[in-house]
Amino acid sequence: MNEAASPFQGKKLLIFDLDGTLVDSSPIHARAFAEVFAPLQVAVDYDRIAGMTTAAAVDRLLLDAGREAAAEERDRLRDAKQQRSRALIEQELREIPGAVAFVTAARALFRCALCTSASPPSAEAALAAIGLAGIFDPVVTSADVRKGKPDPEGFLLAASRAGIEPARALVFEDSESGLAAARAAGMDAIAIGPGLRDWASLLAEMEAGA
Length: 210
Hints:
With 210 residues, this protein is an alpha/beta fold. The protein folds into two domains: 13-25 and 94-208, Rossmann fold (3-Layer(aba) Sandwich), CATH 3.40.50; 26-92, DNA polymerase, domain 1 (Orthogonal Bundle). Helix content is 46%, strand content 10%. Helix 1 (26-37) packs across helix 4. It is globular and about 55 Å long. It comes from Sphingomonas swuensis. InterPro entries: HAD-like_sf (IPR036412), HAD-like_SPP (IPR051806), HAD-SF_hydro_IA (IPR006439), HAD_sf (IPR023214), PGP-like_dom2 (IPR023198). This is Fructose-1-phosphate/6-phosphogluconate phosphatase. Keywords: Coiled coil.
């Protein structure tokens, strides 16, 4: 019986999403959006905006609510949400179980990059909170791209900065927009989350093939 090839076979670059993949930040971001939009009486369905940049999520929430807002108001909402989420990250953020152990082991075998829709300050705060500050190279955030996920720009930029062709990269994502971005970039991807793959089993699989 032929065993399925390891997803790590032939890969040189691992690209990690951050929110929902390495850190359990979805409840934090959902809460921050809900608090910021509550005075506008706009309900937040976080599943519809998960994986988007904050600016794109703000626009989607306003559009879904049928509300028009000037650029200054959209910027205010974006900034308020980012400030609130950073405060909650510093107080409450936790890793997705097994994520830190996996990244720590993977660094000895692969180039490890980060591609996140978070802003640079939010990404830095989250990585510091779980002890992964300064681990990833390159780091691509919302400040580096014109189009967020599901556009492949971020993943392609990460591969370009690493000097590794997209086909030799493996992406770890939790959101459909992120998985779609990986596919569009021509990269294999592993979905992380409940009922999907978990870091402990992936660590065992990676080490078995090392």
